[in-house]
Design brief:
The chain is of the alpha+beta class and 291 residues long. The chain folds into 2 domains: 98 residues; 180 residues, Thrombin, subunit H (Beta Barrel). 43% of the residues lie in helices and 26% in strands. The protein has 4 helices and 12 strands; from the N terminus they run ααβββαβββββββββα. Strand 4 and strand 5 form a beta hairpin. The longest helix has 98 residues.
Length: 291
């Protein structure tokens, strides 16, 4: 007897196939969604790990930056130390050079002082005290040269008469000419005086020089040093000077005047910074000089 297929069973299989066909896109979509979710989870984990690594790198960079800053500070400290040592060595060398020049010329300094001092006077007004020295003009007239700032108050008030004295010798003088710009003044003395020789050529750097004057009224004070530099309008020298030296002569080893004491740099840490007006400036501004 031949068996036949059950119509109901065939219908069920047909219905199941149709349902599977309808559900297939949904299943595929679900699988895709699951894959995307898994991928996003993986990306999120990777981003967190990356963020952690970035923070670690930032920490390393900050640490290295601090170490670099500390190293730079140490290097800068060493540089400043070396610079200070270099300055000290230069100052020591300057003092050695000066001492050698002075030691080699002790006898000459005494001779220079004896030759120059008779022609150097204390210049005194009611307001100030300074120094002046005698030089000869082109006409042969002996005049006393000093700084304008020594006689400035007297000059501004219309006064012209000053007092000149050296040891027991006192006389009067009359201000004949001034240069405010160059800080110079010419005084004509009441008596005939012995002039000093002049050296209008700039002295050599390192050459011995002697300053004579009346620091704080102590007339006839002698100090020695060397020419430190020739500036644009000044001779820089190392001989010590003080208030009252203004207007005094700076002379070379032959006793000839090379400059007029005008100022110094004072303060903690400053030493041997004295300045003079070149004698050539005197000859070109306030008076004529004997050739």
């Amino acid at each position: 007897m031949q068996r036949g297929r059950c119509p109901r069973h065939n219908a069920s299989r047909t219905l199941l196939g149709a349902r599977l066909q309808r559900l297939a896109p949904t299943i595929v979509a679900g699988l895709l969604l699951a894959g995307v979710v898994a991928a996003l989870a993986l990306l999120t984990l990777t981003a967190r790990e990356l963020s952690t690594q970035i923070e670690l790198v930032r920490g390393d960079v900050a640490r290295l930056s601090l170490e670099l800053h500390a190293t730079n500070e140490r290097v800068e400290g060493q540089r400043e130390l070396l610079s200070a040592q270099g300055d000290q060595q230069q100052e020591a060398l300057r003092r050695i050079t000066e001492a050698e020049a002075i030691l080699e010329s002790d006898v000459e300094i005494a001779d220079i002082a004896r030759m120059v001092r008779p022609s150097v006077f204390t210049v005194e007004t009611a307001w100030a005290i300074g120094t002046g020295f005698v030089m000869s003009t082109r006409t042969g007239e002996a005049v006393v040269i000093t700084n304008y700032h020594v006689v400035a108050d007297l000059w501004r008030t219309g006064g012209r008469e000053v007092t000149l004295h050296r040891e027991e010798h006192a006389l009067t003088g009359r201000i004949a000419n001034v240069s405010v710009e160059h800080d110079l003044a010419v005084i004509v003395p009441s008596d005939a005086l012995t002039p000093l020789d002049l050296e209008r050529a700039p002295p050599e750097v390192g050459a011995l020089v002697v300053a004579v004057g009346s620091p704080y009224g102590l007339e006839g004070t002698v100090s020695s040093g060397i020419v430190s530099a020739i500036r644009e309008d000044r001779i820089q020298f190392s001989a010590p000077i003080s208030p009252g030296n203004s207007g005094g002569p700076v002379v070379d080893e032959s006793g000839a005047v090379v400059g007029v004491v005008v100022e110094k740099v004072a303060g903690v840490g400053y030493e041997g910074l004295s300045f003079a007006i070149p004698i050539d400036t005197v000859c070109l501004t306030v008076t004529s000089c004997e050739e």
